[in-house]
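thread: overnight batch results

M.L. [08:02]
morning all. the overnight job finished for the chain we discussed friday. pasting input first so we're all looking at the same thing
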Amino acid sequence: MNDLDTFFINVDDFCQTFLPAWKKHLTSSGVKQRNKPLRISVSEVMIGIAFHQSEYRDLKTYYIHFVCRYLYQQIS
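M.L. [08:03]
and the structure it wrote out:
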Protein backbone atom coordinates (compact mmCIF):
# COMPACT_ATOMS: atom_id res chain seq x y z
CA MET A 1 0.00 0.00 0.00
CA ASN A 2 1.39 3.41 -0.92
CA ASP A 3 1.27 6.68 0.99
CA LEU A 4 -1.84 7.92 -0.84
CA ASP A 5 -3.80 4.80 0.14
CA THR A 6 -2.71 5.13 3.76
CA PHE A 7 -3.59 8.82 3.77
CA PHE A 8 -7.05 8.12 2.30
CA ILE A 9 -7.71 5.37 4.85
CA ASN A 10 -6.70 7.65 7.74
CA VAL A 11 -8.95 10.49 6.55
CA ASP A 12 -11.85 8.11 5.92
CA ASP A 13 -11.44 6.47 9.35
CA PHE A 14 -11.36 9.88 11.00
CA CYS A 15 -14.57 10.93 9.24
CA GLN A 16 -16.27 7.65 10.17
CA THR A 17 -15.46 8.06 13.88
CA PHE A 18 -15.63 11.85 14.26
CA LEU A 19 -19.06 12.55 12.75
CA PRO A 20 -21.05 10.18 15.03
CA ALA A 21 -19.09 11.39 18.07
CA TRP A 22 -19.76 15.02 17.10
CA LYS A 23 -23.49 14.36 16.70
CA LYS A 24 -23.57 12.63 20.09
CA HIS A 25 -21.77 15.57 21.70
CA LEU A 26 -24.19 18.09 20.17
CA THR A 27 -27.19 16.05 21.31
CA SER A 28 -25.91 15.69 24.88
CA SER A 29 -24.92 19.35 25.19
CA GLY A 30 -28.26 20.61 23.87
CA VAL A 31 -26.71 22.63 21.05
CA LYS A 32 -29.09 22.85 18.11
CA GLN A 33 -27.52 22.26 14.72
CA ARG A 34 -28.97 21.93 11.25
CA ASN A 35 -29.10 18.38 9.97
CA LYS A 36 -27.96 18.93 6.39
CA PRO A 37 -26.23 16.26 4.34
CA LEU A 38 -22.51 16.69 3.78
CA ARG A 39 -21.57 18.42 0.55
CA ILE A 40 -17.90 17.51 0.53
CA SER A 41 -16.47 14.10 -0.26
CA VAL A 42 -13.61 12.35 1.49
CA SER A 43 -11.40 12.86 -1.57
CA GLU A 44 -12.06 16.62 -1.41
CA VAL A 45 -11.12 16.61 2.27
CA MET A 46 -7.91 14.78 1.35
CA ILE A 47 -7.00 17.34 -1.31
CA GLY A 48 -7.59 20.14 1.20
CA ILE A 49 -5.41 18.52 3.85
CA ALA A 50 -2.65 17.73 1.36
CA PHE A 51 -2.78 21.29 0.01
CA HIS A 52 -2.31 22.78 3.47
CA GLN A 53 0.63 20.45 4.12
CA SER A 54 2.28 21.37 0.82
CA GLU A 55 4.38 24.41 0.03
CA TYR A 56 2.02 25.73 -2.64
CA ARG A 57 0.54 29.18 -2.04
CA ASP A 58 -2.72 28.82 -3.96
CA LEU A 59 -5.05 25.94 -4.74
CA LYS A 60 -5.04 26.46 -8.52
CA THR A 61 -1.27 26.06 -8.78
CA TYR A 62 -1.36 23.06 -6.44
CA TYR A 63 -4.08 21.41 -8.50
CA ILE A 64 -2.39 22.01 -11.87
CA HIS A 65 1.16 21.14 -10.82
CA PHE A 66 0.57 18.39 -8.28
CA VAL A 67 -2.90 16.84 -8.42
CA CYS A 68 -3.15 16.70 -12.23
CA ARG A 69 0.45 15.57 -12.64
CA TYR A 70 0.90 13.04 -9.83
CA LEU A 71 -2.44 12.13 -8.28
CA TYR A 72 -4.74 12.01 -11.30
CA GLN A 73 -3.57 8.52 -12.32
CA GLN A 74 -4.19 7.17 -8.83
CA ILE A 75 -7.62 8.72 -8.27
CA SER A 76 -9.12 8.06 -11.70
